[in-house]
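Attaching the record inline, Q. Sequence:
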Amino acid sequence: MDSDANGTHAPVHATRVFPSERSSALYFAGSLPPLRRARGAATRSTPYSSRGWLSRCRRSGRRALDGDGDDNDRPEPEERESTTSVLQDDALAAVFARLLDGPAVVRCASTCRRWGRVVCNEAASLSRTLPLLGSLALGFFHQDVDAGRRQAAKGPIFSPTTSGTRLLGFHGHSLLHLDGADLECSRPVASRNGRLVLELRRGRRADGLRLCICNPMTGDADLLPPLCGEDMPGYDYACAFLTGDDVEPPVFSPSHHRLLLVYNRRGFTALRKYSSDTASWGPEAKADARVSNGWLRNMLQPTALRGVVYWPLAWHVLGVRLDGTTMEQYTLPYGCPQPTPVNRSRNLTIGVSPEGRLCLIIMVMRGRHTPAVLTQNFDIAAGRWGTQDTVVTLDQFRLKTATAMTSRCYCEKSGVLFFTLAQGSSIRGTFALNLKTKQIQKIANRESWTSFCGYEMGRDMYLRSLLVPP
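Structure, as predicted:
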């Protein structure tokens, strides 16, 4: 961020990088793997592993470019006598950890299946020693709705960014209906670190709320115990998801996760936590602050920092700790200066800054017609929010009204903000703004979405996806 002679921050203008109309209008739907329940215990979920449909799209695209040849026809380098063939897997992992950057590890993983298997198994530790291998904001999931019949169509649908297009390619797959789980009308409700939380279709009210945690890249899926009867939340609820990287201290296990539901009961707002340690839901707790149903419908993806989930509300940020036995709650008032979006439920998102601080990302109007993006960090020492800094001014857009812009999701590891511009804007559609490079790319021409959920793949998840099953 540039500074003038007086030391004040000057706004930085965004670079317009719009892809062609053909690439921005492409979408594809994929098939999630079948779900299996654990044997002998109705409440415990068992992961099912197969090829993920996102990674399968990538491999299909590469085969289309290279020809429909069989990978098994190629001679594997590991079949030849070499010096590295006598090294154990842990010795190879130690060598990979001493490489200079992430692309070097990727090239090693592509050399042979054994090296790819070692990189996949040690992905969690390798990703922490390779700072140059950044996270990837691949795109977003949403649920397509048939406006004529007022019902959900096939889903979830994935819309890729430019980087997602380069990595995955475009290829369509039909959905599967296996093992009694109907994924055709499922909708995304949360996403974090390469994992996606889906709500399965409710055929009857007695079916309760059924959630599934899946990894679209690897194909792992986990069906959570349903919430039925008096335990079932209403149709308006918010969901937060934590992985092992979000707790304090970090847990280096891909199967470790926490999930939090926020919903309303008669007269109060309730909280309920799910833990992979016990494979069960905890007791219902009462929230300190009341959240209206309107806010629950429009609450964007939360963020997590040191085991605490944070949601921005009307007058404060709500924090709930999930890495302990009790759900300790925190209230962070906006105070002064307050965030200045026109509508906080539409233009205020939350994330973690590159310095590891809680951060608000705010869309505002500069002047009468120009949108801008501000950031505001939380000062832990002072116990309050700091001053607002202008990150980028979007001069390429002209808005007649501030209600035309809507923040959708912030992918904090990649620093990418998804937002839409509707009627009243000179250019309408869905966009992705990189707050670090100040570049904007147009993802789609449409701006209206149902169950919008940004998808970001972490460094360890990318390394694990390099392993192609035989």
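The two ends are 48 Å apart (CA to CA). The longest strand covers residues 370-379.

More tomorrow.
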